[in-house]
Specification:
This protein has about 500 residues and is mostly helical. The chain has one domain (about 25-480): Amino acid/polyamine transporter I (Up-down Bundle). Helix content is about 70%, strand content about 0%.
Length: about 500
């Protein structure tokens, strides 16, 4: 049976509306994530390394207009999460968008979605361990420790924690998110105080004059703002974790809408608000890619411990992101393995119901990142950030394509849409896909890293094709077998 035939049979099984298809990869999980865990995972996904570390170099390149870039990308990121939230309420699955790609695009679509997501998070993991090493070098006592050694230690610690249980993961992310939110709120209060009192920051008087004297909102023109777009998208890359986490919560219909709807105001406050404050406190030239912009500001206030405290917090944020990446890829790879699209060992779970096979595979790629930190420590973060952007853009595009097909089938009476919906379909999905592809094309204007990253697309495509032909018979047999069991 072909994949298309399997997909069609799924859509027509049963009487009346379709029988909701099952995902073999959902079996065996503990459902231990609580509402507070999922809510804070959503917050943690919106606040990570891309903001805490990446915003420094982007402020230097793009200036105050970076806040506009965060706003625009945040709107489209919200559309993606809203579409994913509707799919989750239709059928919660730990396989998330990979499971939905299997239903609406066939196993070939699930294969591409899953491995591109793996590319995203495995390279994001490299970015995270690189960020952890950079943050640690902030303290003089670690200056002499090689960057690759610090990266390896961070990976080992997070791997050990992630293997315990999903409940421990949820608790860690809950408290990581609390720390990140409290710190950003504290920083914004300090920033507002500095603006109101006009207290100097490193010899600069905060206020609109900082922007005016630095060349305006677009000090280097429009092109630098365009070029940072793919990096800004990377900053939002963990938002889709809500969909993965929903597969391990007992009441997704209550938890997911609340978590998704709160993302928009978080984006406005934490991303756009904090970046605007940074631009009002110091000129873009004062920030750099090698240091968190929040650390830069607090260190210039004159309180020595302020920079240390903030650096510890952003270190926590990077650890949180790495923790989330190992969690999500473990679940996605298990869903794929159960369908024959990933190595069999990635479907294995331990006694704590943790799919440790997929987690170890992601760690294996991260170890390559340790080597990258050894060879090119200065460029490691930006290199992997751009490669990760390829993964997240493709993942988001697949989510929106799945939602388009989902809505089309609902209008044909083949299935029923939940009350929690993405508005404006199909215009919203098409506009989001067009924007994401445009961001991908914009990378060509960056000859240093972006253009080289785009040249990797044919290589990645060739690897996907070769991989598919290696496993397609097994995947087709597995999918057909699952369909037979479902319709019997």
């Amino acid at each position: 049976m072909s994949n298309d035939a399997v997909d069609t049979a799924k859509a027509t099984a049963g009487s009346g509306a379709t029988a909701t298809p099952a995902d073999a990869g959902d079996a065996g999980y503990s459902k231990d994530l609580k509402a507070r865990h999922v809510n804070m995972i959503a917050i943690g996904g919106a606040i990570g390394t891309g903001l805490f570390l990446g915003a420094g170099g982007r402020l230097n390149n793009a200036g105050p207009a970076l806040a506009l870039a965060y706003l625009v990308c945040g709107i489209f990121a919200f559309f993606v999460v809203r579409a994913l939230g509707e799919l989750v309420l239709y059928r919660p699955s730990s396989g998330s968008f990979v499971s939905y790609a299997r239903e609406f695009l066939g196993e070939k679509g699930a294969y591409v979605a899953g491995w591109m997501y793996f590319l995203n998070w495995s390279t994001t993991g490299i970015a995270d361990i690189t960020a952890i090493a950079l943050y640690t070098h902030y303290w003089s006592m670690f200056t002499d420790v090689p960057q690759w050694v610090l990266a390896l230690i961070a990976l080992a610690v997070v791997l050990a924690v992630n293997m315990i249980s999903v409940k421990i993961f949820g608790e860690m992310e809950f408290w990581f998110a609390i720390i990140k939110v409290a710190t950003l709120v504290g920083f914004m209060l300090i920033g507002i105080f500095l603006l109101v009192t006009r207290q100097e920051v490193g010899g600069t008087t905060p206020g609109p004059g900082v922007i005016a004297d630095g060349g305006g909102v677009f000090p280097h023109g429009l092109m630098p703002v365009v070029l940072v777009m793919q990096g800004v998208i990377f900053a939002y890359a963990a938002l889709e974790l809500v969909g993965v986490a929903a597969g391990e919560t007992a009441e997704p219909e209550k938890v997911v809408p609340r978590a998704v709807n709160s993302i928009m105001w978080r984006v406005g406050i934490f991303y756009v608000g904090s970046v605007a404050l940074l631009a009002l406190l110091l000129p873009g030239s004062a920030y750099s890619a090698g240091e968190s912009p929040f650390v830069t500001v607090l260190s210039k206030i004159g309180v020595p411990a302020a920079g240390d405290v903030m650096n510890l917090v952003v270190l926590t944020a990077a650890m949180s992101s790495l923790n989330s990446g190992l969690y999500s890829t473990g679940r996605i790879l298990r869903s794929m393995a159960m369908a024959g699209s990933a190595p069999k060992f990635t479907a294995v779970m331990n006694r704590s119901q943790v799919p440790y096979g997929g987690i170890l595979l992601t760690c294996g790629v991260c170890v390559l990142g340790v080597g990258l930190n050894f060879l090119v420590p200065a460029q490691a973060f930006e290199i992997v950030l751009n490669v990760a952007s390829l993964g997240i853009i493709s993942t988001w595009v697949i989510i929106m394509i799945c939602h388009l097909i989902f809505v089309r089938r609902a209008r044909a009476g083949l299935l029923e849409r939940p009350h929690f919906r993405l508005f404006g379909s199909p215009v919203t999905e098409i506009a989001t896909i067009a924007f994401l592809l445009a961001c991908l094309g914009m990378m060509w204007n960056d000859p240093e890293v972006g253009r080289r990253t785009l040249l990797l697309i044919p290589v990645i495509a060739a690897m996907l094709v070769v991989g598919w032909y290696a496993i397609r018979r097994k995947a087709s047999r597995t999918t057909a077998g699952e369909l037979t069991r479902m319709t019997d």
